Known about the structure:
The chain is of the alpha+beta class. It is built from 17 helices and 18 strands. Strands 1-8-5-4-2-3 form a six-stranded mixed sheet, with helices on both faces. Strands 9, 10, 11, 13, 16 and 18 form a six-stranded antiparallel sheet that branches.
Amino acid sequence: MPEAAAAQAPADPTLSLQNLLQAQLSTPEDILALGFKPLASLALRNWRRLAHRLSARGTTITIAAFGSQITMGHQGDSLKGSWVEELQSWLERAFPGTTTTVINLARSATDVVPAATCWYQYVPATVDLVLIEESAVGCYGNLQCHTFAAPRVAAYEQLLRRLIRRAPNAALLAVGTFNYQRFPLSPGAQGTSPSSSDVPNPLYGSGEDHHEVLARRYGIPSASTRDALYDLMQGGSTDMLRGVGRSRSELLVGSGVTPTSAGHRLYADIIAYTMQQTLAEELRQIAAGAVGAASITQERAVQIQQVQEMLQQLPPPVSPLAAEEADGDPTCAMDQAFKSVVNAAESVWWTWGTDGSFAGCPHDHCRVWGYRAKGRGRVLNMMLDTANVTAADSSLNLRSLVVFFTQGSQTPGWQGKMGTARVNCISGCECTGMQLGNKAARATQAGITLGYAMTQVSQHPNCSVSVTIDVPEGATEDEFILNGVAVVPYGKKPRTNVDDLAFMFQARMT
Length: 510
């Protein structure tokens, strides 16, 4: 029997449910339950299908994962992976006879923008499950993810929408993470006791609450490591020992973002619990449906099918910024594809390569490729097609040029070396020139190594664009690395007064 057909007829949903609930998790359930953000079965997108697929013995489940170093893993003492591999192992225990394969598209110290713009295109249309980690990296500081007018919140919604359109049968799971950093206090600070030396990052310090609204909007359950662990993490080592048998320093590396190997196992338990509870309800519904199917009239069956089809449709976007790009697909040239748009003969001072970081990571996406040059005035020339871009309809009649580059101030080993660069349209198209790597942009991309900037560009099949290292004469910070480019279709949309207020708030945060 073909695999797709087998997935529609699980051998025994009751037995699958029993195996699922017997797949043990080492963390106490009262902690795991705090991170469970459920949706009612009828509101879920494709989780019933995923339960069918997992229940069919001999099925191979394809999983894609997005996120930062938290999801990428393969660093510190976690050289064998991250919570993703731990979750993969648990899933195969929970569903014996099922195998899983993972496409890990996470990258260290990156936020959601490149994933929403380009990397989602690496996901096959046949993927079964997509794991999306967000909230900790890119949303830290200056309330960067606390309004639906924020670029990163809009990008998160775009990532969800583009993944759903690209892989319409996939189930998605949102994973909320957190930066557990503590902030030092100056002596005698207002409201502190003499023994106070620091305060924790507030619970609202991430963008998780806005991300959760968007996840629910698209029928996606959420697993929150923040909600499960915040009080324990901020309570000190004694609370951690009582709660999960580990101290904070045993679970987190350094400032409080990246988990240790023990932390990855804990994160995997929290995420697995959400999957366990969600899939258990779906299996119960499958078993009940098999028993009661004979009593459903044909008319009622048609009604149920119509409701399910309606729920699968994409609703209007929440973010006014996301609405401007819904639902177009950018044309991207990143990673190895970036070489195809660069005129190497006219860019002789620029060399192609990778920075060599995470050499032990088996995922191709761990490595950052790009063109590197040193010296004031070094020019790289690109030829882009800004006209041939997939747009949902004629309302997306404008184009945005997005350039990705390495931010030296955020990249270990590159502080004091990286300068700024200037982007200009040379011929065939018009755009407003922009600077890459300036201090103002770095302030809004704290902790991000893959910087980006964008400008409007006119449509033309042969758009010649140059990037020039633009630093003062004699400057020592005169190196630059370009990592990719994208052309994004968008259109102006009407805004409400509430939208305007949201944009005003966001402007104060940048």
